[in-house]
Design goal:
The protein is α+β, with helices and mostly antiparallel strands. It is built from 5 helices and 13 strands. The protein has a single domain (about 5-230), classed as Lipoprotein localisation LolA/LolB/LppX (outer membrane lipoprotein receptor (LolB), chain A, Clam). Helix content is about 15%, strand content about 50%.
């Protein structure tokens, strides 16, 4: 899997945090019509205006097909919250490949942090605010937010697990983002402005797939969900 200079970008996608490539058993697709895209984005604008928070369980699969096939599955819970113009989120990873491996990712006030409890280390990414519009992708983002940052292709509607979604293919307008991310495919519930599934194609045989379940919208989230407890022995690393 990729590391080094791509760590920040790769870590951010956990929230976009994001079922293998095989189709879900309860998926019904409809043919796309690009003339519907303005109406789709407007519907998303309306839903995003009422968005305050989302909590969900997630399964996040990192898939590598080249040069050596490899997979990694992370499971946990994620929370997103927007108050006025302030946005924060947190992902609590419980297990990696079925084994306990607690980690906490948080984003608040423009700072992205990773707390690895096993080694008692906090890594801070102070310049992560430039990625905020990508972090909220599919969770409270409006149609205007998407159109500002992405070239959008409507791939038609699909019903997943009884919920109608719109499948959109997104290609970043920012060439810096495209260096690490070829395209994103998201399955959006337009009535709630939330994603049920996301696929991130990073190119060179790398992809990340995330599915969400037990989605709760606009319910109160405890403040401690966006924080973590450290001690005098905690090590801090700035990136």
């Amino acid at each position: 899997m990729r590391s080094g200079s791509n760590l920040v970008v790769a870590a951010l996608w956990i929230f976009l945090a994001l079922v293998p490539f095989a189709s879900s058993p309860d998926v019904v697709a409809a043919a796309p019509d690009q003339r519907n895209l303005p109406a789709i984005l407007q519907q998303l604008n309306n839903a995003a205006a009422n968005f305050r928070s989302t909590s969900a369980n997630f399964e996040f699969d990192s898939i590598q097909t080249d040069p050596i096939p490899d997979t990694e599955k992370q499971t946990g819970t994620v929370d997103y919250e927007r108050k006025n113009n302030a946005f924060q989120m947190a992902a609590h990873i419980d297990a990696v490949n079925g084994k306990p491996a607690p980690k906490i990712y948080t984003y608040s006030k423009g700072v992205f942090q990773l707390y690895e409890t096993g080694i008692d280390q906090v890594t801070k990414f102070a310049k992560a605010s430039q990625f905020e519009s990508y972090i909220i992708l599919g969770f409270g983002a409006s149609g205007k937010d998407l159109a500002d940052k992405w070239d959008i292709t409507d791939l038609g509607s699909e019903t997943i697990g009884g919920t109608k979604t719109e499948k959109l293919e997104l290609i970043a307008k920012d060439p810096t983002v495209r260096k690490n991310l070829v395209k994103v495919t998201i399955w959006l519930d337009l009535t709630r402005a939330v994603s049920l599934k996301q696929v991130f194609d990073e190119g060179q045989g790398q992809s990340r797939v995330c599915t969400y379940s037990n989605i709760k919208v606009n319910q109160p989230i405890a403040a401690e969900e966006f924080n973590f407890k450290t001690d005098s022995k905690t090590q801090y690393v700035n990136r």
